[in-house]
Amino acid sequence: MQWSMKVDMALPVPVRVILRGVGQVFFCGNAVTGLIFLIALYVGGVTAGLAATVGVVTSTITAYLLGFSDDDIDAGLYGFNGTLVGPCLFLFLENTPQLWIYVVLASILSSVVLAALIRILTPYKIPASTSPFVLTCWMFMVAVYSFDSFSRGPVLPSPEIPAAIASADLPAAAWLSSMTAETTEMWYVALTKGVAEVMFADNVLVGILFLIGIAITSWRGAFMALCGTFVGVLVPILLGANQNLIEMGLYAFNPVLTMMAIGWVFLKPSTGTAFLALIAGILTVICQAGLANFLAPIGLPTLTFPFVLVMWMFLFAAGISKHWSN
Amino acid sequence: MQWSMKVDMALPVPVRVILRGVGQVFFCGNAVTGLIFLIALYVGGVTAGLAATVGVVTSTITAYLLGFSDDDIDAGLYGFNGTLVGPCLFLFLENTPQLWIYVVLASILSSVVLAALIRILTPYKIPASTSPFVLTCWMFMVAVYSFDSFSRGPVLPSPEIPAAIASADLPAAAWLSSMTAETTEMWYVALTKGVAEVMFADNVLVGILFLIGIAITSWRGAFMALCGTFVGVLVPILLGANQNLIEMGLYAFNPVLTMMAIGWVFLKPSTGTAFLALIAGILTVICQAGLANFLAPIGLPTLTFPFVLVMWMFLFAAGISKHWSN
Amino acid sequence: MQWSMKVDMALPVPVRVILRGVGQVFFCGNAVTGLIFLIALYVGGVTAGLAATVGVVTSTITAYLLGFSDDDIDAGLYGFNGTLVGPCLFLFLENTPQLWIYVVLASILSSVVLAALIRILTPYKIPASTSPFVLTCWMFMVAVYSFDSFSRGPVLPSPEIPAAIASADLPAAAWLSSMTAETTEMWYVALTKGVAEVMFADNVLVGILFLIGIAITSWRGAFMALCGTFVGVLVPILLGANQNLIEMGLYAFNPVLTMMAIGWVFLKPSTGTAFLALIAGILTVICQAGLANFLAPIGLPTLTFPFVLVMWMFLFAAGISKHWSN
Q1: Helices assigned H by DSSP within chain C
Q2: ipTM of this complex prediction, to 2 decimal places
Q3: Cα separation of B158 and B32, whole Å?
Q4: Helices C46-65 and C13-23 sit at what angle, rounded to 10 degrees?
Q5: What residues have CB less than 8 Å from C50, skipping those under 6 apart?
Q6: Among B109, B149, B297, whose Cβ lies nearest the Cβ of A297?
Q7: Looking at chain B, which residue has its C-alpha nearest residue A123?
Q8: Pick from C306, C250, C248: which is nearest to C282 by CA?
Q9: Looking at beta carbons, which pairs linking B166-170 to residues 24 or more positions away fall under 8 Å?
Q10: Which chain B residues are within 8 Å of A255, Cβ to Cβ?
Q11: Cβ pair A143:C317 closer than 8 A
């Protein structure tokens, strides 16, 4: 919206860059949106909020000190991976004072990895997106087993749950039956948490705040996010996936990002690309399940890598399509 | 052969494109060859034949709808990955009605992945080959563990067999002893099945039909396929690999493709490239064993990825060679 | 040093190329340095020395026969991966006569993989470094499980040790306490072995010879190697890693290579790049721990891949930095 862009431009540069960095988690280079996201993160939990703040500041300063593109830094592109690194490490590792050193190191590395991927992907006009966050966090999370100074925190139920308990307790029918107070509640919770889980928040309110933040930048963006969370609830229901995971939105946060990327940000908006986004969203659910089972033996979560993989495939393919070019 | 090209050109476009798609599994952009392959697939099993048909049609139509290169579509390049996706999923997953949805989705994805890889690899003049089929099938096969609607079928003995039972019951001597009726039979079965297993057929006749089909397009191609299956039987015997796997041709289908690719399709045919193809074929056997053991813990088969990896290495390397350029 | 370059140029071409190949393990295209490295290898063990010799000769001849760049061959670039392949396979697999065939095949493949990576990475001005050695050895080492002709040798204690026994017996305090004869000895052993383990030698003298060899080519190189081994001992101590591994130098050989690559070879030498090298060295320790735990279930060692990954990230990133360009 017009007014939010004016506020964004009126802010002092450092504040604007940092807030845009938070906003870019959902592809929104807008400080107002970023502020709402940051507030939402603190609503979800003070530690998560602080960790995100440390992350976004560290990764942005790193990019500045290492001399990466000023335009990219100004757009907040060196901020969103750090924003995600912080809460991620605090969710999956035990909360100790040393962990802050880990968050700082990981945020530094995320900016180096992002610059490396920008170098590789820019000739193809393909974004690195959240892949630096994923690769960095995976590395730090699996390294922890070797170091006494760190240990694993209580791990959330996640799509990585062993196949044995992955069968749904509740049949698809329960979700798809005629609308009762209970099914409405289930859908409402799953859909909003699906958006919130992009930044690791298991919280309905956070999801709503994220949607509002996105809508301030773009209605189409918010619509695609809604479609994505809907796909991420409906498709796993139809395929018979674990109902706890569905209700926590853990199948939905990847399709949310995929559908926003394909249907709004990186291809020309049209009915055609909206349909393409839908296909990509459905495939992201399957990719999520596949990658989760693939990583389960090492105890790593998928994070947003299913989104990254499917988005890359579709954007690379769009590059040689007569209909959609990016 | 001349006549087969004339028949190929005389066919109506849709039929020609689909049949060429089947033919391209063995690098043959020739509808007559494709028809023989398709007949062979139905000989191997009606379900496999139907699944291949659904796959090739779906992936080709997808490429057309997404606006990928008409020349590539016409050559059948958007068909062979779909051809392989179908029978593969029906071999490794349980045969249920829902599986057809999975085959359609996977065939669509295989065309998107192919386009993405074409975008990346074309500047290097390197083919994506069967890698989209492999990546897509791996993803769907490992995703299945999370979904109630699907389950694993009876899995074939494969190179993924645990090391404990991987020791050969029969010493290499038995294969290499003076020619008796029994050893002749063993070699005959292993060599033909080695070709048939490229499309998952554990069937001598299918292998012979495949060889005839290839010979119709190119004698050198058929010769390289024969050399490849020979390497894929002899080398594992000498290295002391599991004899059941050897006799089922499960060490041979990858070298078959490698030797065809290096010795016939992608480099200028000469004595030098024939020798290079031989080295590549031998290394493919080792790569097959390595990848199989690497994937065993997750329960995934290698499919044709050993061929893809070795071929990529040799073709990239050929790109900077003074003697062989591609 | 001047005199070593004069000796290098005065040698007959084949001898010079082979010795430079050995020298390139530490980025030194200098035959005198290479000769000292080779002597050190034989000091470490005659089999290791012989295997390295067979490896470097095979991989260099392969590059010549396959027609790869004469300049690269002359600089010894097609030799160092073979140099590493030989001792690596003899360390991790059982010493049998057949193993020599394996060493020859792996050295051939290492040159093909190097050429392939040169083709891919040269446009970015990024070196393939030891990645062909790592990829080739991983493939051969994991293939072995399928073949009766080979078996695993007694495996060294390595960072792949299960988490259960990975906890340090000795607290960091013991290493960092006031300097006694014992702590001095511990540091001396760990620091020199850290350099020696780059070529799999668990030997103080070999490490010293390597450092002398590097110093003959470049003082800055030797200084960076020393800093690298220091980082590779201090950082894991502070993080609380397994003390046996630290004392054997198994956390140090990767940072040694990383700091030499970033702080001396591939970026313009300055205070800035020295600092960058330090950050890269610290991250290499974490990457080492992460990759080791990642590979542990398959029983593979990290080899020098942590160095390769971190170096690639930093060099790709440097390519778009205003301050450091490569």
Answers
A1: 2-10, 13-23, 31-44, 46-65, 70-74, 80-92, 99-121, 131-143, 172-176, 181-196, 204-217, 219-239, 243-247, 253-260, 271-295, 305-318
A2: 0.90
A3: 31
A4: 120
A5: C86
A6: B297
A7: B120
A8: C306
A9: B166/B241, B166/B242, B166/C145, B166/C146, B167/B240, B167/B242, B167/C148, B168/B240, B168/B241, B168/B242, B168/B243, B168/C148, B169/B243, B169/B244, B170/B243
A10: none
A11: no
The answer to whether B31 touches B16, Cβ cutoff 8 Å, is: yes
Chains with at least 3 CB pairs less than 8 angstroms from chain B: A, C
Domains and CATH numbers, chain C: 12-146 (1.10.3430.10), 172-318 (1.10.3430.10)
Q: Do B148 and A167 touch (CB under 8 A)?
A: yes
Q: Show Cβ contacts of residue B251 under 8 Å, excluding neighbours closer than 6 positions.
A: B159, B194, B232, B233, B235, B236, B241, B245, B285, B288, B289
Burial status of residue B179 (CB atoms within 10 A of its CB: 0-12, 13-18, 19 or more): exposed
Rounded to two decimals, the pTM is: 0.92
Residue among C66, C117, C139 minimizing CB distance to B290? C139
164-193 in C: which are within 8 Å (CB) of A?
A: 166-168
> Chains touching chain C at 3 or more Cβ pairs under 8 angstroms?
A, B
Rounded Cα gap, residues B305 and B74, in angstroms: 25
Burial class (CB in 10 A: 0-12, 13-18, 19+), A173: exposed
Q: List CB contacts (< 8 A) between B238 and chain C.
A: 149
For chain C, say whether B241 makes contact (Cβ under 8 Å). yes
State the Cα angle at B37 between B32 and B42, rounded to 5°: 125
Q: Which of C299, C298, C144 is nearest to B167 (CA)?
A: C144
Using the beta-carbon criterion (under 8 Å), do C290 and A117 form an inter-chain contact?
Answer: no
Contacts of B279 in chain C (CB under 8 A): 108
Q: What's the full length of chain B, in residues?
A: 326
Q: Which residues of B touch C142 (CB under 8 A)?
A: 289-291, 293-294
Query: Please, are residues A134 and A199 in contact by the beta-carbon 8 Å criterion?
Result: no
How many beta carbons lie within 10 A of that of residue C253, not counting itself? 31
Residue pLDDT tens, chain C, 326 long: 678 889 999 999 999 999 999 999 999 999 999 999 999 999 999 999 999 999 999 999 999 999 999 999 999 999 999 999 999 999 999 888 889 999 999 999 999 999 999 999 998 999 999 999 999 999 999 998 888 777 776 554 444 444 444 444 556 667 777 678 888 889 999 999 999 999 999 999 999 999 999 999 999 999 999 999 999 999 999 999 998 999 999 999 999 999 999 999 999 999 999 999 999 999 999 999 999 999 988 889 999 999 999 999 999 999 999 887 65
Give the pair of three-digit tokens for residue B41: 């697939």
Pairwise CA distance, residues A255 & B271, whole Å: 52
Q: In the block, which residue shows the tokens 């060295």?
A: C281
- Radius of gyration of chain B from its Cα atoms, rounded to whole angstroms: 19
| Residue from the list B159, B240, B290 with its beta carbon closest to the beta carbon of C148 | B240
Query: CB–CB of A119 and C168 under 8 A?
Result: no
Structure confidence by residue, pLDDT tens digits, B189-241: 999 999 999 999 999 999 999 999 999 999 999 999 999 999 999 999 999 99
